[in-house]
Amino acid sequence: MFRGVRRLWSGMFGRYLWVTNTVSCGGMLALGDGIQQQLEHARGVGTNPNYDWKRTGRLFLVGLSQGPPHHIFYLWLDKVMPQRTGKVVFKKILADQFLGAPFFAVTFFLGAGLLEGHTLAESWKEFKQKFPAVYAFDWIIWPPTQAINFYLIPAPYRVLYINVITVIWDIFLSYMKHKELMLNGQPRMKNLFHIIFVRGRMDFG
Questions:
Q1: What gap in Å lies between CA 188 and CA 205, rounded to an integer?
Q2: C-beta separation of 98 from 63 below 8 A
Q3: Which of 92, 134, 147, 192 reaches 20 to 30 Å from 154, CA-CA?
Q4: Distance, CA of 198 to CA of 52 (rounded, Å)
């Protein structure tokens, strides 16, 4: 039994690491959306009185699509910057923030929008509207998370570690994706920094 478990573990974080990273990306994004839907229903602000499995399924597919790029990106970072010195970790964090974060944000909104039946132009417009808030929160959560990741976490487990931490991030992404953001005199999203630092909580209304 233990030999089989060891063999499975070795395969998941060895030869089939890319599969593990891909499935965990999809699963964690689906979990984040599930938690966000429960928060919406608890506060009576959801647009659907029942659980929306199609919505979760769409985000699961988006997560699956982002798994391989995450896998490749972190392997590339470790290859070009293998050391764990403070200077190297700082460079990796900057690479993650200036290269990885924008790429994964745009692919999230475009992928989710297309799966919802929107055009590419409509999905791009939504990305441009919501990216400033998403990117601001990205700077709050990910640099300290990645410092631990690059300093302490062994390379085969980095995407899995990120995916576990990502549950919080994915709740926020689901919130941003399904929150109405209207311009031209219509209700606008509240300022993110006011929500976090003044009111001390995320406004999921």
A1: 12
A2: no
A3: 134
A4: 32
Q: How far is CA 142 from CA 78, 152, 164, in A?
A: 17, 15, 13
pTM score: 0.75
* pLDDT digits 0-9 by tens, 84-135: 888 999 999 999 999 999 999 999 999 999 999 999 999 999 999 999 999 9
Alpha carbon 182 to chain centroid, angstroms = 23
The count of residues in the chain is 205
Determine the Cα–Cα distance for residues 127 and 134; give it in Å rounded to an integer. Answer: 9
Cβ(24)–Cβ(161) below 8 Å: no
Q: Six-digit token pair at 127? A: 């990305």
Please tell me whether residue 13 adopts helix, strand or coil conformation: coil
Closest CA to 109 of 76, 133, 84: 133
Cβ–Cβ under 8 Å, residues 173 and 202: no
* Structure tokens, 106: 């745009």
